[in-house]
Amino acid sequence: MGTITPIESYRLIAEAHARGESVVVATVAHTRGSTPQRRGAKMIFFENGATAGTVGGGCIEAEVWAEARAALRSGESRLHKFSLTAEEASEEGMVCGGVMEIFIDAWKF
């Protein structure tokens, strides 16, 4: 799964809206150190379990997916901080070791 353009992300959100399906848009808001994606990268989570885009892959996306599911249930948006310490990175086989702040934005339709 790769990155998505802003136009593609808005098209997908509009299609979900037309179906009455809520979505969560995760956007990398800030990074520090070595991270798998840069600021602005987006991932969309749909109620039916589908996704589009990426915010980094691996354990970061698993954590973001968990927060996205919670946001789909609650309808609440908030900024989350994810640490990719060197120790965690080596355990997961990653080359990262930075910090990412990802805004989890719930769009209830």
Overview of this protein structure:
By secondary structure, the chain is of the alpha+beta class. The protein has one domain (6-107). The protein is built from three helices and five strands. A five-stranded antiparallel sheet has the order 3-2-1-5-4, sandwiched between helices. A hairpin with a 4-residue loop joins strand 2 (42-46) and strand 3. The longest helix has 17 residues, at 58-74. The radius of gyration is 14 Å and the shape is globular. The two termini are 25 Å apart. 28% of the residues are buried. The model has no long low-confidence stretch (mean pLDDT 89).
Strand order of the largest sheet: 3-2-1-5-4
| Secondary structural class | alpha+beta
Based on DSSP secondary structure assignment, what is the total number of beta strands? 5
Counted up, domains total: 1
Model regions low in confidence, pLDDT < 50 over at least 5 residues: none
Count the DSSP helices. Answer: 3
Question: How many whole angstroms does the radius of gyration measure?
Answer: 14 Å
C-alpha termini separation: 25 Å
How many strands, which pairing sense, and closed or not: the largest β-sheet? 5 strands, antiparallel
Helix residue percentage: 25-40%
Mean pLDDT value: 89
Beta strand %: 25-35%
N-to-C order of helices and strands: HEEEHEHE
Molecular shape: globular
